[in-house]
Amino acid sequence: MKDMTKTSKFLSLVLRHHPEKIGVSLDEHGWAPVPDILAGMNLTMEELEHIVDADEKRRYSFSGDKTRIRANQGHSIPVDLELEQRQPPEVLFHGTVERFLDPIRREGLQRRSRQYVHLSPDAETAVKVGSRRGKPVVLQVAAGRMARDGRAFFLSENGVWLTEEVPPQYLKFD
Question: Which of 143, 101, 103, 98 is nearest to 120 (CA)?
């Protein structure tokens, strides 16, 4: 039996950052042909379905007919996920760690190599995100005020809120 956690992480790398690692091409919306993924990763359809269904963060989506697959967000390569602008809740959250706080205080949250800044709908999720790099620190984002000030927000299929940046004046550091 394959290590599905390791395989899922590699699938994430392929679909979000480096499709060329297995000779796959993504279309302009981030979709990859499922047969190409199966061949490039030496997977069965059942194994791929298991990875998609078992992923707690719901990182992946199949097309309706399951002939294509894509990552729901987090791309460092340009793709149009066809997301509609949405009105966010008044407050969203961002999980990070202490060592990043000084640059965040100066510059706000920047997308860096990704297409968007990722924001969580609740503090608990932000804690999990921040925990990946150490002791988590959760920032509150005045998302409602940002939207009223003309900043665009999008909601990915797996419930992650996306925006291009969060200037420091919209952040609450506790």
Answer: 143
